[in-house]
Design goal:
- The protein is mostly helical.
- The protein contains 7 helices and no strands.
- Helix 5 crosses helix 7.
């Protein structure tokens, strides 16, 4: 039981420090007398239950995927370092590609049980600084595909021109 208490205290402290940056959380604590950490946990719990039972799940998941990322991106732009800028730019690339893919497959995905719960987990994995999922997915999937596409684009005009010259139908060089 002591181990569980230590874990609780560690996460409580981290979340409490994080919520100090949000004035609405401080106001909530002052007006209700409920610690802001418990208010945030309750709000997250309600959101999770709504997503689990598919009540407004699409809106809640997309707001999570967009809202927190937009907030973190603005903070990254305003910070002096560039590493967090790259992290959030990478997130937006992956998020955009995911949304395009979802647009074309959404009518099928909707029928999968707990799809929005899985999507929420995926988006949190992409955003979380501890996992840096968007950077990992970009490095292992998107970047190699883009490099292949660029290589194909570079070789296509040259290959087509060489093929045309060999057939005698292309531009003649003197």
């Amino acid at each position: 039981m002591e181990h569980a208490r230590q874990i609780h205290d560690r996460y409580y402290e981290v979340l409490d420090r994080t919520l100090l940056k949000i004035p609405a959380a401080q106001t909530f604590q002052e007006k209700t007398g409920v610690p802001k950490v418990y208010g945030a946990a309750g709000l997250a719990g309600i959101g999770l239950v709504l997503v689990f039972f598919n009540i407004g799940a699409a809106l809640l998941v997309n707001l999570t995927g967009f809202g927190y990322a937009a907030y973190a991106s603005i903070n990254a732009i305003e910070s002096p370092g560039k590493e967090d800028d790259a992290q959030w730019l990478t997130y937006w690339v992956v998020f955009g590609l995911f949304n395009v893919a979802e647009y074309f497959t959404g009518f099928l995905l909707y029928w999968f049980p707990f799809y929005y719960l899985l999507k929420l987990g995926f988006l949190v994995w992409l955003m979380a600084p501890a996992t840096r999922g968007a950077e990992r997915l970009y490095a292992t999937g998107i970047k190699p595909a883009m490099l292949q596409l660029k290589a194909a684009q570079r070789s296509t005009p040259a290959a087509a021109s060489a093929s045309a010259k060999a057939k005698g139908t292309g531009p003649k060089s003197d």
